[in-house]
Structure prediction request, 595 residues.
Amino acid sequence: MSADSTPEQKLKSGEKSKLTESYSGVAHELADYAEETKAFVLGNSTKLNTVAEEEWPVLPPGITREVFTEAIDELASLLGEDNVEINENPTLEDGWYLEHPNTHDSFHLMDGDYFVSSAAVYPGSVEDVQTVVKWANKWKIPLYSISLGRNFGYGGAAPRLRGSMVVDLGRRMNRILSLNDKDYTCLVEPGVTYFRLYEEIQKNDYGMWIDPPDIGGGSLVGNALERGVGYTPYGDHWGFHCGLEVVLANGEIYRTGMGAMSNSNAWQVFPYGFGPHLDGLFSQSNFGIVTKMGFNLFPDPKGYSSHAITFDREEDFGAIIEVIREIRVRNISGNVGQLNSAKGELTFRHTRELLGVKGKFMTKEEVEQAAKTKLKHGPYAWIFFLSLYGPDEVRAHSWKTIQEMMSGITGVHFYTEDDYKDGEPDNFHIHHDSSRGIPQFIGVRQSCWYPNGAHSDFTPISPITAKDAGQLLDLVYRMQEKHQLDSFPNFVVGVRELHMIDFIMYDKKDPEMRKRAQEMLRDLIQEGKKLGYGEYRTHLALQDQVMSTYDFNDNIHRRFCELLKDAIDPNGILSPGKSGIWPKNLRGKGWEFTA
Ligand code: ADP
Prediction:
């Protein structure tokens, strides 16, 4: 099969899967299902990337080809030739979730060859990471550190600054360093995926649960650093980390919290240590490379049930939100809940084509129609998933209380596991499993809404009130009309805050649609800011814009980060531009993308 065949052609030719050949972090028991999903995703990919005429590899700014070659030769002699790989592949194959490239953003929001690396390096130890950092300072070559590099919908493994060298930590640094079933903690290297940790716990029959995000192939480290969420009571991933080991820009190793004391045995049980608590400096930032991270794990609660509540009427949205706040803030339901729109639910098992959508985006009428036949217990406008933990009597009492609290809403229906026993697997089962710590996979299919499907998300944070959630929903509906593009608003319910996650879908091989997706996201960020809503996470292409919306006191947040950046990374070698933080040598030189 030639290098220029499309993924679909390759699939038909029966080209052998690499899934079990290279480290991808996938759980072995999921291998068959992964193959099936791979067929589905690659079957949806009909076109190759177009790459502008250009000399490869793309180099970092200010580095000549001679210098680059000399520098790479030196790095290869330091770390071994097999551990340094130049990005000479101008075809930029997108692969799929489990066989994702570390050369570019496989869900490109900009041209496929914009966010590209010059090379990748695979350190095998903390000492290797120190060597890479010292090397980068010497040659002034910018690095971009990733753990697994899946970063689904937010830029994949691509560096923010074109031509940076990707430091792919996950490939070789993927050990579980400790798993303690007395204090329910773990310490992991960057390449440990949710699948991997889950398998290890099962193998040892430890009575503890992990907290996976929507898809389990990412790393604990990457997801927590980006402040991702899951659906057990430990759903705030950053909030439940405990202790970091970081290689600083000068090559020194720093440990946070109790790890700052060389012989402490409390690193994973007490996050603060003594003096300033600096962990936050290393989340969504470019101030260090995280080489180890500790987490608290959820002791098996010895009793679990999950529930779905559906709501018939769109117009009850505000009333639903007001009750959900009381349920969450008073801890009546035990976990991070999910309030999903009917439209969002439809994406899990359907594509536009399967639903027969004709126009540019799925209208409200089309959603209502599809919800009648395609959604179990449908039609409904909204569905809320929640889980309860602990002894039977406690859960029974909580469920009764929740039903009473919701009873004032017209068209509300309550479901338990028994109501989902028969028939096809449903999203209920996904929720049921992820809220008891079993990593899932089906979310990979969601992005296949369009052919060559990709998504990126609008992710504003708000209080859990009818007014706030209503304003955000109106904004999203307005933007769908304006940009004629499908988006799928869901709400993740923390304790006191809502994360609205509005999936914006596009065909990444259709430049016109991609442009519309980008314009829609930019509009959402700007209009959201006018209403006072800031995003918690965003795609590489949008990070400067989101950073600019955090504008208190003339953007002191960004300016303070820049002060720190210049002091601790004077050569600007660590992930320049990440989260809109540019080092002084690149700041204001045209690399920023503002609104
Ligand atoms: P995942 O493991 O979920 O695929 P990534 O590895 O893509 O996540 O990480 C998401 C983002 O977090 C990266 O683009 C990078 O900016 C940051 N990041 C990930 N791992 C590290 C790390 N070990 N040190 C510093 N930053 C990291």
Observations:
- The pocket of adenosine-5'-diphosphate is lined by residues 145-151, 157, 169, 190, 218-219, 221-223, 225-226, 289-290, 575, 578 (CB under 6 Å).
